[in-house]
Write a structure and sequence with these properties.
It contains 14 helices and 16 strands. The longest helix is centred in the middle third of the chain and has 20 residues. It is of the alpha/beta class. 43% of the residues lie in helices and 18% in strands.
Length: 381
């Protein structure tokens, strides 16, 4: 653990500037985990992010970045982020988006401080499924980005990633560490009161075809109406037209779309659900991902239904906290739902097992120590 003394250089408090042009200011990983951890440890933390005003929240200074009108505007906003970042005169700059790599490299050239690149996804694999890119150019673009990302990262002070698989992509930089997106323990409390008259299945997060929303909605149509189960969706549709399409899918009559809510409210809603669902499609960027919602469901003490990817299977079935299914088969998803509804004792035990696993090993409290150790190492050089 970093001591208070290490947060000062020559008696001056160390300044950390966190940068994001793509994420909202109160993003779980960026604000609730990393920024709060650093602020609590004694660092002076500034966060530059899309917001409607400058303000201070939980001791973290938020510098508002205007929300982008489109993807091109967001890419050009990199230079606005750079200007705002330079004004902070920070000792450490920690950025979270691949589009900010040029800004990160320029910061490294201009300032004496340290620069950290935080990688949330396997971006080259993600490019392979980007709908806004013509399919014929996705592979060449992915290969080019893969080269440029690794080249840029090697010239920065450190790379932080979310999974061990992504870490292997950056081994050549020799300055990489995995800090996983496990939940903060204090944010979700166990709620043993679940509605047995109308069981609730919950999906919380970004809503898109790749997240398997089509299939989990269709799965609801396979359930006997006497079960009175409902699926509640929390989050934002990544494409507005997709919402209209989903409303026409068979099974949507048993779905309630509640929209996006604050993370603290989301935690409460998860704890009130009966079953948590995370059935991403087997896309290249999903198979080895570690979705935060999986662990939040577990922490809330509810059984999970997850895609049968090897890594997810190891977590859900290895800890006996849920079932895994073929995410492309709505009937298979429905069978898993029926099993958990028909075997409440098993479902309850799975929920207890999941919570125990998160309390013991899948939690941010353990990961936060890695973050502080990285900062201590960088600032001691």
């Amino acid at each position: 653990m970093v001591t208070k003394q290490t947060q000062h250089i020559n008696g001056i408090e160390i300044k950390v500037c966190i940068l994001t042009s793509a994420h909202p200011p109160f993003n779980r990983r960026i604000f609730h985990k990393q920024a709060k951890t650093l602020a609590k440890a004694g660092y002076e933390v500034t966060l530059i992010a899309q917001h409607d005003r400058d303000e201070v929240v939980d001791g973290i200074k938020i510098v508002a970045l205007p929300r982008p009108k489109n993807r091109l505007w967001r890419m050009l906003a990199t230079w606005r982020v750079l200007r705002l970042a330079l004004r902070q005169k920070a000792d450490v700059y920690h950025f979270h988006d691949p589009e900010l790599l040029p800004a990160g490299l320029l910061l490294k050239l201009i300032i004496k401080g340290k620069v950290i690149y935080d990688v949330h996804e396997d971006y080259p694999k993600a490019i392979l499924t980007k709908h806004w890119l013509p399919s014929s150019v996705r592979m060449p673009v992915a290969l080019l980005f893969n080269f440029l990302e690794k080249w840029a990262a090697s010239r920065l002070d450190y790379t932080i990633v979310t999974t061990d698989d992504i870490a292997r992509n950056f081994e050549s930089t020799r300055k990489v560490a995995t800090i996983k997106n496990y939940p903060v323990l204090e944010r979700i409390e166990l709620s043993p009161m679940h509605d047995t008259e109308q069981p609730t299945l919950i999906y919380a997060g970004g809503i898109s075809q790749g997240r398997g929303i089509d299939e989990i909605i269709q799965a609801m149509a396979y359930l006997d109406s006497s079960r009175n189960a409902r699926l509640v969706l929390y989050g934002k549709f990544k494409i507005e037209s997709y919402q209209e399409i989903m409303q026409g899918v068979k099974g949507f009559d048993r779905v309630e779309y509640r929209g996006w809510i604050e993370p603290e409210q989301m935690c409460q809603k998860i704890s009130e659900a009966t079953i948590g669902i995370v059935c991403y499609r087997p896309e290249p960027n999903h198979i080895n991902a570690m979705p935060t919602k999986l662990f939040e469901y577990m922490l809330a003490g509810i059984p999970v239904i997850a895609s049968n990817f090897p890594r997810w299977k190891e977590i859900a079935e290895g800890n006996n906290c849920g079932l895994t299914v073929n995410p492309l088969d709505p009937a298979d998803i429905a069978r898993a739902i029926e099993y958990l509804l028909d075997h409440p004792d098993d479902a309850r035990q799975m929920g207890e097992n999941g919570r125990k696993s998160v309390l013991e090993k899948y939690n941010w409290e353990a990961e936060s120590k890695k973050l502080l150790e990285i900062y201590e190492r960088l600032l001691s050089v």
